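In keeping with the milestone schedule agreed at the kick-off meeting, the structural modelling team has produced records for the first pair of proteins. Each record is given below as a sequence line and a structure-token line. The laboratory manager (R.T.) confirmed that both were archived under the project's standard naming scheme.
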Amino acid sequence: MSEAGDRQAGRRDGEAHGVGTADEGRVRAVVAATRMISLEPDPRALRHAPETLAEHVKTAVNAAFEDLRTAVAADGEAPVIDPLAMARQFRSLSDDLDHRMTAVTGSIQESATALRRDAEVPGELPTMEFGDMFGQLADLLEIIGGVPDGEPPLGEGTVTGGWVRVTCEPGPRVVSMTVQRRAMRGTAELAGHVVAAVNAALEDLAEKTRELRKEAGADPEKINARIGELRELGVTRMEAYGQAVSGLMGGIRPYQ
């Protein structure tokens, strides 16, 4: 079996889950989107030194989360969206839209200049000012996806007086795990300790992420309010542009 995780993701009770293995299949982990479901260690895995076993378990858990992400994408489910990546796309759209708007405005100017030979054309030509709205959306997405000073939060989880300690980073991904010999008395005991510690770390990570995003201005109420403002701004600008075009067309008068 692959140390990177077998592609065995599926569903349990309607919930997508991922599967990862390590130590030639002797350690098997199952995860859902935000939690670990189970650990299935073969009794032979308990023969390892605690440090080696912890590394195998960490590999299996991370492979399971990667398996889940791959399966979700393959099934066409709504993917986990990276706000910062989307922000970069909006900034690119903003630059492209500004360029296109400049070209369209220039074309309108040329047409108006040609038309003035035979008709009176109002001096004020409408301009389309929508490109900066993508920039404002990008600003908002960067607030949602960012954290102060760009430092990612780390979640910490421990059980039974430190018999198993886990540190997770966004992804999620386990970055470190320690297992004491006392946690290796049996496969069921080990599985229970690891699942509890991983889930405690994931919960701590989620809470720290919420707090950091709130500090960065990503409070849900403020975000929703800002989204509403941008929506209204878009409607207002569309109406203003439509009225300007209508006024331009209505103001054209043939020379007598």
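The second protein of the pair:
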Amino acid sequence: MRQVFADTFYWIAFVDPGDTWHERVRQIFRALQPCKLITTDEVLVELLAFYSKSGTQLRQRASNLTRDILEGSDIEVIEQSHRSFLEGLALYENRLDKGYSLTDCISMSTMRQLGITEVLTHDKHFTQEGFAVLFPD
């Protein structure tokens, strides 16, 4: 089955019906079926941090989505570990000329380990590393 990595961008747009990308992320997900979504604990941490000051409704939606992802069986969440942190840190240190976040570096390292080439994001940093971004400009 096709595996696609879900970046923070995807989950942020998924949570907020007012987000510019909201409808498009839902359409793309339906168009990709059947596929297996993969994400990481670090991506979910970044999602919750993003909505931490967005008011009760969006915080609740982000929290509910995170619980659904963690408790459901249809999305695989790669657990955070000291190893994943160190591998992400190594990529971060090797790309000091880029604007990559540590979460992006951990995601890219995870994708490489799993052989995943497609990512649900709009972040050009992933294309710079050779991944296929499913929300280009």
